[in-house]
Amino acid sequence: MAHVKAKKYLGQHFLRDTDVARRIVESLPLDDASCVLEIGPGMGVLTRFLIQIPNIRLKAIEIDTESVNYLRFHYPQLDLLEGDFLKISPDKIFPEKRDVKYTIIGNFPYNISSQIFFNVLDNRDSIPHVVCMIQKEVAERMAAKSGSKTYGILSVLMQAFYSIDYLFTVHEHVFDPPPKVKSAVIRLTRNDIEHIQCDEQLFKTVVKTAFNQRRKTMRNSLKPLVPKESPMYNNPLFDKRPEQLDVQTFVELTNMVATALQSIKKQINVQPYEKK
Questions:
Q1: How far apart are CA 55 and CA 35, in angstroms?
Q2: Strand pairing of 102-107 and 56-62?
Q3: Of the four, 82, 95, 159, 190, which is 20 to 30 A from 223 by CA?
Q4: 86 and 167, same structural domain?
Q5: 144 and 251 co-located in one domain
Q6: What is the C-alpha separation between 70 and 4, in angstroms, rounded?
Q7: Is the pTM for the entire model greater than 0.85?
Q8: Which domain holds residue 145?
Q9: SS3 letters for 143-162?
Q10: Last residue of a domain, one of 190, 214, 234
Q11: For 136-163, how does the pLDDT look when each residue is reduced to its tens digit (9 = 90+)?
């Protein structure tokens, strides 16, 4: 069967270098009888090595019908789902196993990599590891530590629940068609934090609001959430910029915001006493 034609609207850039593919697969942390989900196998450059690993339960999901037909022809033994990873219910991935934990691997399309990571966050208790190739700049942002210029929203949200290792850089010439940017392989490993010690939804809002105006101090960037008159801003923490705050400090800051919002709510609900 002929090769699959890369489709721009799907962000497809097929990896041609089998040595790179082997290195990606060898980066998987596996234990006996692990479940592995490959996202977007394309023409199976990773699949060919994954199916050789003993004692794993391998499944793949692919949205491109042409790629699905190619994979079914060349890898008939592969358990393949045709569909969109971002839309499939997690319990449909390994329906035969209850409360299953599965490792994710894949060469993620650049245009949806952040959405995939947010999906991983939503299902983090089922996903102990992720090994993936993404755009180099995104990989650097995710692995960046506080104080770095590349540290941002994705860094904080992902590092709250995963440790992130930048493994190696992949150059453009090993793809067909070659992308305009370099790629990188990273590995995510679930940490021991089950729940962060604050309201998680508010935490996400605080992080996103802060970095949306990253050049400003926290005192100025968080004004859309808490009015500038709030005594909360007397804390010297708000003199800092968002890239100076690590994950734990963002947790503490979220609790400050929650307290300030609760105080404002109580003030609004107080009815003035009227003399008759």
A1: 9
A2: unpaired
A3: 159
A4: yes
A5: no
A6: 7
A7: yes
A8: 8-190
A9: HCCCCCCCCCHHHHHHHCCE
A10: 190
A11: 999 999 999 999 999 999 999 999 999 9
